[in-house]
């Protein structure tokens, strides 16, 4: 049962959680998981076997159930129970509209089959990028531990990245952010490697009206702590052969 101090609040339909400032369907649910669920997931992330972590220069990450090989998930293994429940069940329980029972109703596997876990201590970010062709274009991100801003960028006419973000989305701990369609394919997303998000206001944050509470940001600042994200996606190609090939690849 959820404690009264950290209720979850799911909308009857995603329409109520739509980020209207954005050009394609995107949704934000501030209280998607409870504080107890957040702590339980963080505990599982922190106590995962060391070999699960891949250390990049400034950031470390885990991939579940395994890394992709040539955009393919090898083997039809399920996600571990702690990544399925409560998050996947809850994502699938929310209708998008009257005619669309959930976000993955039309995806190849009908549900997310892959989770990337990224850890961002203060001053850590991720370069602006697109997610590529490996996934169905619905991205569900659960944030844990701390708030930060995700920036959306557009390429200029000459193809170079315009370094000024077009939109900023503030992601609070325990929230779910969903991006789809053009936001996935036409825009880049990234997180600045800074310790404090600045200039936070109703005018600059696309999901301001959907925040759990804007009051911590009245001075326009968000001092970051370590934020961990769970990115749920449906990998289009799954190879059953993978069960035999898996021993050939590291960390699978
Ligand atoms: O941590 C996030 O919110 C973004 C992760 C991301 O950009 C990705 O997985 O491609």
Automatic annotation (TrEMBL):
InterPro entries: AlkB-like, AlkB-like_sf, ALKBH6, Oxoglu/Fe-dep_dioxygenase_dom. The keyword Metal-binding applies. It is found in: Nucleus. Gene3D superfamilies: Alpha-ketoglutarate-dependent dioxygenase AlkB-like. Residues 111-236 form the Fe2OG dioxygenase domain. Its main location: nucleus. The keyword Nucleus applies. GO terms for molecular function: dioxygenase activity; metal ion binding. This is Alpha-ketoglutarate-dependent dioxygenase alkB 6.
């Amino acid at each position: 049962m959820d404690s009264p101090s950290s209720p979850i609040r799911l909308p009857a339909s995603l329409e109520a959680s739509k980020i209207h400032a954005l050009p394609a369907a995107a949704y934000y649910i501030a209280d998607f998981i409870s504080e107890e669920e957040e702590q339980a997931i963080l505990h599982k992330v922190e106590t995962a076997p060391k070999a699960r972590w891949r250390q990049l220069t400034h950031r470390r990450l885990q991939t579940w159930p395994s890394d992709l090989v040539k955009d393919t998930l090898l083997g039809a293994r399920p996600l571990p129970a702690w990544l399925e429940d409560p998050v996947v069940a809850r994502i699938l329980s929310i209708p998008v509209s009257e005619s669309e029972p959930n976000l993955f109703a039309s995806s190849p596997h009908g549900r997310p089959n892959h989770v990337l876990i990224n850890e961002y201590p203060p001053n850590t970010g991720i370069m602006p990028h697109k997610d590529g062709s490996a996934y169905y274009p619905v991205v569900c991100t659960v944030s844990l531990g701390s708030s930060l801003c995700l920036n959306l960028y557009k390429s200029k006419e000459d193809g170079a990245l315009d370094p000024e973000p077009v939109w900023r989305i503030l992601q609070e701990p325990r929230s779910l952010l969903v991006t789809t369609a053009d936001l996935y394919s036409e825009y880049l997303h990234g997180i600045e490697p800074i310790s404090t998000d600045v200039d936070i206001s109703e005018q600059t944050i696309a999901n301001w009206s959907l925040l759990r509470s804007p009051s911590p940001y009245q001075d326009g600042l968000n001092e970051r702590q370590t934020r961990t994200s769970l990115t749920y996606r449906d990998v289009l190609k799954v190879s059953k052969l993978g069960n035999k090939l898996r021993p050939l690849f590291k960390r699978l």
